[in-house]
Design brief:
- The chain is mostly helical and about 210 residues long.
- The chain has 10 helices and no strands.
- It has helices at about 5, 15-30, 35-40, 45-50, 55-75, 85-110, 120-135, 155, 160-190, 190-205.
């Protein structure tokens, strides 16, 4: 961790707050009336928080909070179904958030990526977490992909014809990484963060 990273640590509570904010914003991004840009901005606080510090377990816990926040809002309608109570709904939310913790571990490990490529590890980690969620057999949850936030944005929707929902998701998280690292670069004047923002932005622009 360099001096610029230390300057970006205003509070130990900040990453947890960022996780809650991202979770709520991601849920909002999937509302039918939300513009595609919300999907690019929503994960940025979480990405920025995971870029700060912490090992894989700490990062997994932060991602868990974001995942729980997101799913609690996104599938709250399940509580109205017959036979659903607080206990079994809570178990579903915990399971979904636990799967999303994979992203936190991947984001932590991505800190060891070559300069300018860290964003790609973060985006790939998010895609991996979603792939796992979609392949859990009877426990799979088909809803809630952030890629769906791009359904009305034609340039992004076209990516689905090339690489399916996962490529759309990768590009969406690339946009979020561009926002997150650009913000960090502005605050901390970090060359490494500028490289990440430029790399993610270049991929997204393509």
């Amino acid at each position: 961790m360099g001096p610029h990273d230390r300057n970006l640590h205003p509070s130990r509570a900040a990453p947890w707050g960022a996780a809650l904010v991202s979770g709520a914003a991601m849920a909002a991004s999937l509302h039918p009336s939300a513009p595609a840009v919300v999907g690019w901005l929503a994960p940025a606080p979480l990405v920025a928080a995971l870029a700060l510090r912490g090992g894989p377990l700490h990062s997994a816990a932060i991602a868990f909070v974001a995942g729980f926040s997101f799913w609690a809002l996104h599938v709250r309608w399940i509580a109205t179904l017959p036979g659903v109570n607080a206990a079994n709904l809570g178990a579903v939310l915990v399971a979904l958030a636990a799967v999303f913790s994979i992203f936190g571990v991947a984001a932590s490990l991505a800190r060891g990526a070559p300069a300018g490529a860290r964003w790609a590890g973060i985006a790939a980690g998010w895609v991996l977490a979603e792939w796992v969620r979609l392949h859990l057999g009877f426990a799979s949850m088909p809803w809630g992909s952030l890629a769906y936030s791009q359904i009305d944005f034609l340039p992004m929707a076209r990516l689905a014809a090339i690489g399916g929902i996962h490529l759309v998701l990768f590009a969406t998280i690339a946009a979020a990484c561009c926002v997150a690292f650009a913000g960090r670069a502005l605050v901390g004047r970090s060359t490494a963060d500028r490289r990440e923002a430029i790399g993610a932005g270049a991929f997204f622009a393509l």
